[in-house]
Specification:
This protein is of the alpha+beta class and 299 residues long. Helices cover 21% and strands 31% of the residues. The chain is built from 6 helices and 18 strands. A 6-stranded mixed beta sheet has the order 2-1-3-4-18-5, with helices on both faces. Strand 9 and strand 10 form a beta hairpin. Helix 1 crosses helix 2. The longest helix is centred in the N-terminal third of the chain and has 21 residues. The protein is globular, with a radius of gyration of 21 Å.
Length: 299
């Protein structure tokens, strides 16, 4: 017998819950904020909206389905199954947080706080969940296949991300490495910089775009479903031993950007999640390229 679909509701701890965990009671949290000229009520209202959205989605799950919940901090320990429908209730960034742990499951993005989120990935309101859940497992479900980026080290460690992968120092030190591109006519270039960012078309609405605009780049950034990546070197430093001639570009499928580490330690992490980083040491090589898996985001 095949298993019934399982709705996996992905959510995150609210700011109000974090305040209560830190201060113990609502009154103590209110006092802490009021002493700084802020009110706890706006934070509690956002908390209540998020929980109403989560409750409405939970109530919309068909009775014949199974249901589970996972908090963002537990995603790396949660086992997703092939029969899952993943419902992300929160902000756009929460979809990116979940994407790296999936393998083709349909994803429904529910905006828990309409008007405060761009709604690029959390496209639906909670009241649409009752229709969207059965629709997501149907044969005619329309999904966007969003490109992802992956980093693979020479000792077979692997990292996936929906928006971008950063390779560089964990703090404010200088990253030293040699940058090389597949099939490039120019030789590898030793560089010193504050890190390298490789991102997708989805990421082109965030951190990647800020670099693109900052340097007035003429690169045509990819779209979310384009099977290409854009990459930028952050603040490359010219010196007798390091160059700045290769600081941006596009990666087509099958091509990789390779960094050979020449610092004591660098890290690679995806979508801003520094707690789930690859540790890179001197002499190690990491290759960044278009990932095989894609995020299947339901229309």
């Amino acid at each position: 017998m095949s298993l019934a679909p399982r709705a996996v509701l992905v959510h995150r701890t609210t700011e109000y819950e974090e305040l209560l965990a830190r201060h113990g009671t609502h009154g103590q949290a209110a006092f802490f904020l009021s002493a700084r000229g802020r009110s706890v009520e706006a934070v509690r209202e956002r908390h209540e909206r998020a929980h109403r959205a989560l409750a409405e989605v939970a109530g919309a799950v068909p009775l014949t389905w199974r249901q589970s919940r996972v908090e963002r901090a537990d995603l790396d320990r949660f086992l997703f199954g092939p029969e899952d429908v993943v419902v992300v209730v929160g902000q756009d960034g929460l979809v990116a947080n979940a994407a790296k742990y999936l393998s083709g499951q349909p994803v429904i993005g529910i905006d828990a706080d309409p008007g405060r989120n761009p709604g690029v990935l959390v496209r639906h309101s909670a009241d649409r969940a009752r229709r969207l859940l059965p629709y997501a497992v149907g044969a005619g479900a329309a999904v966007d296949e969003l490109t992802m980026v992956e980093a693979v080290t020479d000792d077979a460690q692997r990292l996936l991300a929906l928006n971008e992968i950063y390779v560089g120092p964990r703090g404010h030190q200088t990253a030293r490495y040699t940058l090389d591109l597949d099939a490039a006519e120019a030789p590898p270039e030793p560089q010193a910089s504050s890190g390298v960012l490789v991102g997708t078309g989805t990421g082109a609405t965030g951190w990647l775009r800020s670099l693109w605009e900052q340097r007035s780049s003429t690169l045509a950034l990819p779209g979310p479903a384009d099977a290409r990546l854009a990459w930028f070197v952050r603040e490359a430093w010219p010196s007798p031993a390091t160059g700045t001639s290769r600081v941006e570009g596009l990666l087509d499928p099958g091509r990789a950007l390779r960094l050979t580490v020449e610092s004591d330690r660098l890290v690679a992490f995806g979508d801003g999640v520094e707690s789930d980083a690859l540790e890179l040491t001197w002499g190690q090589t990491v290759s960044l390229s278009v990932a095989g898996p894609r995020l299947r985001l339901v229309h």
